[in-house]
Amino acid sequence: MVPAKPLTSYRPYWAKRFGIAPFLPMSRAEMDALGWDSCDVIVVTGDAYIDHPSFGMALIGRLLEAQGFRVGIISQPDWRSAADFKKLGKPNLYFGITAGNMDSMVNRYTSERKTRSDDAYTPGAAPDKRPDRAVVVYAQRAREAYADVPVVIGGIEASLRRIAHYDYWSDKVRRSVLPDSKADLLLFGNAERALVELTHRLAKGEAIGDIRDLRGSAFMVPHGWTPAADWQDANAPTHDAERARSYVRLPSFEEVAADTTRYAQASRAFHLESNPGNARCLAQAHGSGAGLRDVWLNPPPLPLGTAEMDHIYGLAYARAPHPAYGGAKIPAWEMIRHSISIMRGCFGGCTFCSITEHEGRIIQSRSEHSILHEIEEIRDKTPGFTGIISDLGGPTANMYRMACNDKSVEAACRRLSCVYPEICPRLSTDHAPLIALYRKARTLPGIKKVLIGSGLRYDLAVRSPEYVKELVGHHVGGYLKIAPEHSEAGPLSKMMKPGMAAYDKFKRMFDAATQAAGKEQYLIPYFIAAHPGTTDEDMLELALWLKRNGFRLDQVQTFLPTPLALATTMYHTEKNPLRRVDAAGEALVVVRGARSRKLHKAFLRYHDAENWPLLREALQRMGRADLIGNGKKHLVPAWQPATCSTAIPAARKTRPVKRR
């Protein structure tokens, strides 16, 4: 594999002489105060601007600032006209468009397609500050504002819509976001490497339409286009010359929109080309006749090294919301202001999750020194800090510094998960670096407690009794969240999640460590209702498991099909893309109707009187009327309270468990 050019190896752009901005400017007055006559790059985002590395606009803005570029921020613009897109003037290089930290449709709608009443990424949690499909709308308005300025789209919304995809909210297959947004370039995944190179090349005068060799980029080209031979040789995904010169043509948008089998085949092919060590380019035709063009995807970006991760997270962030918001509360900021990202990526491959599609399977970790320094920065500079770090984590709590122990195998591997159906024997599951980090973090002066708020991968944790003891003894604040997601083998096999044996083993270790520490602590298990491949009988068995174990869940999660996820393919096609897809392939049970989805959710809240009528009806239909009655062996009572809001006393073995 050709080595990546380090982020810090570029010669700074001439505008570096202006120095570091207290906050990246959101107004012409701020630009004037900095001595700027223009911005080189303007980032448009659907989130409030919070100058902290957990927020995408701040991270890429500060990264480009460190390269010498002048970066302005247009946060949550009025999208009904182009006026807000002109308020910083015309950018010299390009508009960078992102919906924000969340997909705008997930941000605005529930799994029942109901509009959410608040937005955690907006001051005061105010709703309706961003449009549906924000990337498309923002890109179009930016083009209206300055037709000759290149438009580059990125972030999770664009990343997960880079090819034709099933859209749950319109219940149809939509085109790639590229033709809809008319953007010049899409940067997918964690795009720092491509973004820095792109910006320097544009600053040197290259036309954006000529830049076709960036890993992690996608763009529109004439049908049948292929890159020049010298580009392919210089950027070979592997040392295999034949593979380096090849590309995969996915079924066209028109094919996948019309045929669910072709959609499932395209989804499987897409996911098999996700390892940056061996991924080939992808092409997918859109349109017909004179309008026929291809969406072209280069291989995924190469992972960042530890020094590069340290550089990014050590930039000159103000670590606060922009002063323009005054004292308004921004829930997302309140949640993460005392937490620290220690790594990126996830090799779990859970089919319902989009982390792997966006961040990749290779773990990218910061150094211990960088993390400890950030804790000290929070301690010394964050107003209201009480001495408690709310999280040291990332997509998962305990994949820090884990990797394949054979780099040649890692580069050639095409598995969708390193831990399913079992943990790969080549995967290092050593928790020692994480244990050492925990111990040093909690002993820093002024630090009272370091909590772990990220979800724990318990099938990894059970391999390290010392880690479990360390975690439970020092880093649990009464509750620890883990995600079995289900109790039954059928749904778990479609989620690519471990069986309940791993959960049971971890619970025994957790309880023993809790008792040894003389504490009262509880596990919070997360479960998903209505996941593809889940029958009514599966949900009943899960409800019985919950009752046997004394769990009465508060809030529960109903499966939400998000673009590109393998479980979304299952939902849309009723086929299993984890196996070869053909006419004889596995057909799946899929829960679609509102009433059926409501029933699956009701099984998770069997103790709620509001759900009893629906559950009694279902149990009778399923031939399980024996579970209706007033004894301990029954799931729901035969009687109904006069008002369903009346509290129903019930024996339970543990304290009530709260859910996200």
What structural category arises from helix and sheet content? alpha/beta
- CATH T-level topology of the largest domain: Rossmann fold
The overall number of domains is 3
Report the β-strand fraction as a percent range: 5-15%
Any guess at the CATH architecture of the largest domain?
3-Layer(aba) Sandwich
Distance between the termini: 41 Å
Task: Describe the protein's architecture and organization.
This protein is α/β, with parallel strands linked by helices and 660 residues long. It has three domains: 7-218, 3-Layer(aba) Sandwich (Rossmann fold); 338-519, 2-Layer Sandwich (Transcription Regulator spoIIAA), CATH 3.30.750; 530-660, no CATH class. Strands 3-1-4-5-8-9-12-11-10 form a nine-stranded mixed β-sheet, sandwiched between helices. Helix 11 packs antiparallel against helix 23, helix 17 runs parallel beside helix 19 and helix 22 packs parallel to helix 24 (594-604). The relative contact order is 0.09.
Mind sketching the topology for me?
Blueprint (H helix, E strand, L loop, with lengths): L27 H7 L6 E5 L4 E2 L4 H11 L4 E5 L18 E5 L5 H5 L25 H12 L5 E3 L1 H5 L5 E3 L4 E3 L2 H5 L3 E3 L4 H12 L13 E6 L6 H6 L6 H4 L2 E4 L2 H6 L1 H13 L8 E6 L6 E5 L8 H8 L6 E2 L9 H6 L2 E3 L1 E2 L10 H5 L4 E2 L2 H14 L6 E2 L1 E3 L13 H6 L19 H11 L6 E2 L7 H4 L3 H10 L4 E7 L3 H7 L4 H17 L5 E8 L6 H13 L8 E2 L7 H8 L20 H11 L7 H10 L39
Parallel strand pairs: 1-3, 1-4, 4-5, 5-8, 10-11, 14-18, 17-19, 20-21, 21-22
Antiparallel strand pairs: 2-13, 6-7, 8-9, 9-12, 11-12, 15-16
